[in-house]
Amino acid sequence: EVNYYAVIEIDGEEVAENYYSFYMPAKDITLNVRFERLKPLEVGESTTIGNSTYTITAAALENTIGTVRLDSLKDDGTAAVVIPDIVEIRGYSYRVTTVAGRALAANQTMTSLKIGAYVTSIGSYAVLGCKNLTKVYGGARLKTIGTKAFASCPKLKSFVISSTVLSKISSYTFSGDKSLKTIYVRKTTKLTKKGVKKSLKGSKIKTVKVKKSKVRKYKKYFTKKNCGRKVKVKK
Question: What is the pTM of this model?
Fold first, then answer.
């Protein structure tokens, strides 16, 4: 990603305060190159960094950190995939707060996924059909998980979310994940009955690990009638 662009002067009279000067005797001219910082992208504009594409969701200024949505992450052969906390775009900083629907879907190389510390929402089908994914963890500020976000990941065995504010696990989130028997959401105090409706439908999950003080309450939410599957709720 280029942070600066060049203003070029040939035998010009204007002199920048900070510039590089190159004398070219064969042409008998002096080439002056001045570097100026690019303006930040505006809200709604997109850019690609490596194998990832991001869209600006909140502007970044000189002393302000903006936010971006991860729109897609191409399968580049990386097994341990990390959704970053912060990305730099044109020299400005942005927190990655959203993962778009289907952003990582059908990645066949990924075996583990770390969710960035500032991600608050994961869109529907975001990680659908990742055949070799075995582990998902992180998500310290994660609030919502979309429909079938982690569905059809047959080798997924470990799902550990560290968020204290997770409030919604949407319908069929783990549908078709035949190896996933336990999910860990031990820190959150924000789950509601509506927030887990049909969340385990189509899954093979047997146990939901939750905060000790919430076991009694969450047992009322994670019922077969409400979440779609009979499970044990434990600390």
Answer: 0.85
